Automatic annotation (TrEMBL):
It comes from Streptococcus oricebi. This is Thymidylate kinase. Belongs to the thymidylate kinase family. InterPro entries: P-loop_NTPase (IPR027417), Thymidylate_kin-like_dom (IPR039430), Thymidylate_kin_CS (IPR018095), Thymidylate_kinase (IPR018094). It is an enzyme of class 2 (transferase).
């Protein structure tokens, strides 16, 4: 039985999730509260190996359903090996991407059937959903320009998709947000990073104290 708290961060590429995750982790540590931060795809060695395959710009031949199934496989391994045991122990986990990424990217971006993705997500997670999802919303052109400018980040296979594709992904997120307003909270990621972090913390504090 799940006893811990699961928070996911979602958003288009370049929305600043990783920086927010780091800041949240530091905040919790400074306040002597244990949190585990992790990411998808990846988080454990088998899932990180799957991540390499998915994001390798050389893998231009990858079929869309193969891509989806690799994300789902990575999700299952990460969940079974890391997330579920930690939640069972009552720990708090903050995850950089989770189930909504597959719906937004493979469903709305690639055009795969959302009902089938929901089923696969349910299969991979045994029906686990985050207690809270912070959705960092940002104009896709701004996000992609941030990635292009970043010295820490090479554009991966998905970053290299068209602007239209990234726009569909964002619309996907906005559709999920409208469908599950209790679980997802929108954060304006066009603000300065400090404000994005402050807004994210305020939502967490309001929800969980
Ligand atoms: P990241 O750059 O935020 O670590 O995520 C890697 C890429 O994988 C990003 O472009 C979003 C994409 N992605 C999907 O397309 N489907 C998924 O299910 C997940 C978890 C990520």
């Amino acid at each position: 039985m799940k006893k811990g708290l699961l928070i996911s961060l979602e958003g288009p590429d370049g929305s600043g999730k990783s920086s927010v995750l780091e800041a949240l982790s530091n905040f919790f540590q400074e306040n002597k509260q244990e949190v585990i931060t992790t990411r998808e795809p990846g988080g454990v060695p088998i899932a990180e190996a799957i991540r390499q395959i998915i994001l390798d710009p050389k893998n231009t031949a990858m079929d869309e359903k193969t891509e989806l199934l690799l994300y789902i496989a990575s999700r299952r391994q990460h969940l079974a090996e890391r997330v579920l045991p930690a939640l069972d122990k009552g720990e708090t986990i903050i995850m950089d991407r989770f189930i909504d990424s597959s719906v937004a990217y493979q469903g709305f971006g690639r055009g795969l059937t959302v009902e089938e993705i929901n089923w696969l997500n349910h299969y991979a997670t045994d029906g686990l959903k985050p207690d809270l999802t912070l959705y960092l919303d940002l104009d896709v052109e701004v996000g992609l320009a941030r990635i292009a400018k970043s010295q820490h980040r090479e554009a991966d296979r998905l970053d290299r998709e068209s602007l239209d594709w990234h726009e569909r992904v964002r619309q996907g997120y906005l559709t999920i947000l409208a469908a599950e307003p209790d679980r997802l909270v929108k954060i304006d990621a066009s603000q300065p990073l400090d404000k994005v972090i402050a807004d994210s913390l305020a939502v967490i504090q309001e929800r969980f104290g």
